[in-house]
Design brief:
Keywords: Glycoprotein, Leucine-rich repeat, Membrane, Receptor, Repeat, Signal, Transmembrane, Transmembrane helix. It is a single-pass membrane protein. The strands form 2 sheets. Strands 1-3-5-7-9-11-13 form a 7-stranded parallel β-sheet, with no helix packed on it. The protein is of the alpha/beta class. Helix 2 packs parallel to helix 4. It contains 4 helices and 14 strands. The longest helix is centred in the C-terminal third of the chain and has 13 residues, at 194-206. The protein has helices at residues 121-124, 167-177, 181-186, 194-206; strands at residues 6-8, 17-18, 31-33, 39-41, 58-60, 65-69, 84-86, 91-94, 107-109, 114-118, 131-133, 138-141, 151-153, 162-163. It starts with 5 loop residues before the first strand and ends with a helix. It has 2 domains: 6-164, Ribonuclease Inhibitor (Leucine-rich repeat, LRR (right-handed beta-alpha superhelix)); 166-207.
């Protein structure tokens, strides 16, 4: 299996099955596509800096029964040429991981899950991003603003995302993520204007 480069098993009515640990032996893997293939359980954490999939290009896990978090190790992965992640139509929870390492990533589809937290600035800033779909999650904070040329399906009016135009909850959430919400609240003075709130959010995102 060490020479296997592609696994494509889309649209097969398999009984529910877990991604096997033996998949890590496929060190030459470039494409793993298992759309609507009965996958269940969690994603094994194969994606760390010492992971086996340095050449992975396409990952499609859409429309299955997967749960748990998206692997945080994607942020420090050995994968260098990842172009596409489709994980839509599952029951993934937790935050969207930092994907800034994947500067060739052009297509991210995470819709129809239960992802929470704010949309990370690292996703918005991906230099090669062309398509992104975040609709129907439980995301919070300000609606992300992607650069011109990115096709976005991120419907603010439909689905379960809880984006807010009131900036104060966004500040509280962001400050909490950075572990200084109590200090900030104790030192808050004066009128909390929209301009001040925007500057504070920008500062915390840089931090």
């Amino acid at each position: 299996m060490s020479s296997l480069q592609e696994v494509t098993i889309d649209n097969n009515p398999f009984s529910q099955w877990n991604i096997p640990d033996s998949l890590k032996d496929c060190v030459a893997l470039q494409t793993f596509s298992a759309q609507s293939a009965g996958l269940t359980g969690t994603i094994p954490d194969f994606f760390g800096r010492d992971g086996p999939f340095a050449g992975l290009v396409f990952l499609d896990l859409s429309d299955n029964f997967l749960e748990g978090g998206l692997p945080a190790s994607l942020s420090g992965s050995s994968i260098e040429n990842l172009l596409q992640i489709w994980a839509n139509g599952n029951s993934f929870t937790g935050p969207i991981p930092d994907l800034s390492h994947h500067d060739q990533l052009y297509d991210v589809n995470l819709r129809d899950n239960q992802l929470t937290g704010v949309v990370p600035p690292s996703l918005v800033a991906l230099p090669s991003l062309k398509f992104v779909n975040l609709t129907n999650n439980l995301l919070q904070g300000s609606p992300p603003v992607f650069k011109d040329g990115v096709a976005v399906d991120n419907n603010v009016d439909k689905g379960r995302n809880q984006y807010c135009t009131n900036m104060f909850p966004t500040i509280i959430y962001t400050a909490k993520c950075h572990h200084f919400v109590k200090v900030w609240m104790l030192n808050m003075k004066g009128i909390l204007t929209l301009e001040r709130m925007n500057k504070l959010i920008q500062f915390m995102q840089v931090k």
